[in-house]
Design a protein that fits this description.
The complex is a heterodimer of chains A (114) and B (111). Chain A has no helices and eleven strands. Chain A has strands spanning 5-7, 10-13, 19-24, 31-38, 42-50, 53-57, 64-68, 74-78, 87-94, 104-105, 109-113. Chain B is an all-beta fold. Chain B contains no helices and eleven strands. In chain B, the strands form two sheets. In chain B, strands 2, 4, 5, 9, 10 and 11 form a six-stranded mixed sheet that branches. Chain B is globular, with a radius of gyration of 13 Å. Chain B starts with a strand and ends with a strand. The chains are: A mainly beta (114), B mainly beta (111).
């Protein structure tokens, strides 16, 4: 059974640019969450989508946005990149919204802003 | 606001030397406490979910326990392949704000 797939694995962008990251969840999983991981702050919740609707949002500026498609695949976008946006961005999928279901993480996209 | 504190930040053990990792939490209505293992360059790998005080779960050399204020991850007779960062996370209330993670414990098992 295929796991959570994130593309690309690595990305280098220039300050001020925008970037789009992609996540394909495990087949049958309808919930997709996004997290930012940095050495200083650890893992921080960005947002969660279920059935194409954003259900929860973390404490990040509006430059961070996302969407989910009808096939449950999700994308997140960061506009006007800042140096502090350099991080590992992780996607997690789950069958449902309840914590009864486990969350499976992908390997992440390593974003470097220069 | 939910908070998760893990200790110690780092732990170095000899192969076979058992120990415990701690995860203290404050949350309004626990809906699940999660333990993950993360290897360098990879995403977190799910280990356990605990839901109520007194609950215990085991997997190979790992055993997770839960009280009303903290969780422990006990590692019995660890092997070098158990070296990783162990992350604890909680989900509260109606599930708002996703998972709240601790900073993790970096565990090194020396042969």
């Amino acid at each position: 059974k295929a796991g959570v797939t994130q593309t690309p694995r690595y990305l280098i962008k220039t300050r001020g640019q925008q970037v789009t990251l992609s996540c394909s969840p495990i087949s049958g999983h309808r919930s997709v969450s996004w997290y930012q991981q940095t050495p200083g702050q650890g893992l921080q919740f960005l947002f969660e989508y279920f059935s194409e609707t954003q259900r929860n949002k973390g404490n990040f500026p509006g430059r961070f946005s996302g969407r989910q498609f009808s096939n449950s695949r999700s994308e997140m976008n960061v506009s006007t990149l800042e140096l502090g946006d350099s991080a590992l961005y992780l996607c997690a999928s789950s069958y449902g919204q309840s914590s009864t279901y486990g969350y499976t993480f992908g390997s992440g996209t390593r974003l470097t802003v220069v | 606001e939910d908070q998760v504190t893990q200790s110690p930040e780092a732990l170095r053990l000899q192969e076979g030397e058992s120990s415990s990792l701690n995860c203290s939490y404050t949350v309004s209505g626990l809906r699940g406490l999660f333990w993950y293992r993360q290897d360098p360059g990879k995403g977190p790998e799910f280990l356990f979910t605990l839901y109520s005080a007194g609950e215990e779960k085991e997997k190979e050399r790992l055993k997770a326990t839960l009280t009303k204020k903290e969780s422990f991850l006990h590692i019995t007779a660890p092997k070098p392949e158990d070296s990783a960062t162990y992350l604890c996370a909680v989900r509260s209330g109606g599930g708002a704000d996703g998972l709240t993670f601790g900073k993790g414990t970096h565990l090194i098992i020396q042969p």
